[in-house]
Design a protein that fits this description.
about 160 residues, Arc Repressor Mutant, subunit A, 2 domains, about 35% helix
Length: about 160
């Protein structure tokens, strides 16, 4: 397993790669270690530099520029979670959706389960779960609502006044 760090305007992000595929991004080092211990086989961790293109992508993103993030990912979760995460990946930069709409797009009424899947997203920012809102509020975000707001503002997302409550 390879571990990389990136100094973002939101703090240090930790990236975990397994077999050259991104498997996890964390805003918190302890949470990252807990996640790796739970989902990945025990193996030595090696510190590596992020590839230059990844650094460029992140620099551009945090400067408020749309980025495609065409990085190799390995989504680790249940089949339902992976379906939700793939649906979330379709939300364009600067746009938002709701848990209820995503559930409908998946031919389901289980919008709370969509919210739980979004909350379990191991690759925030690249799988942009911050773009998924509650019908009458921001909903949740594993890194905290302040970071969710900052990411949405960075992208210039248009929110209704109820989303700021």
């Amino acid at each position: 397993m390879n571990i990389s760090y990136y100094q973002s305007p939101l703090g240090v992000l930790e990236f975990s790669f397994h077999r050259n595929q991104l498997v996890h991004i964390s805003f918190d080092k302890k949470e990252a270690q807990k996640w790796r211990g739970r989902y990945l086989p025990k193996e030595a961790e090696h510190l590596m530099d992020l590839p230059p293109q990844y650094v460029t992508d992140l620099d551009n993103y945090f400067q408020g520029k749309p980025v495609a993030f065409n990085w190799p990912l390995s989504l680790i979760g249940t089949p339902f979670q992976i379906r939700v995460w793939n649906e979330i990946r379709m939300i364009p930069y600067g746009k938002v959706s709701t848990y209820k709409k995503i559930a409908g797009d998946l031919n389901s009424r289980a919008y709370r389960a969509v919210g739980q899947a979004a909350g379990a997203n191991p690759i925030p920012i690249l799988v942009p779960c911050h773009r998924v809102l509650g019908t009458h509020g921001l909903g949740g975000y594993s890194a905290g609502l302040n970071i969710k707001r900052l990411l949405l503002e960075l992208e210039g997302a248009k929110l209704s006044p109820t989303h700021y409550a």
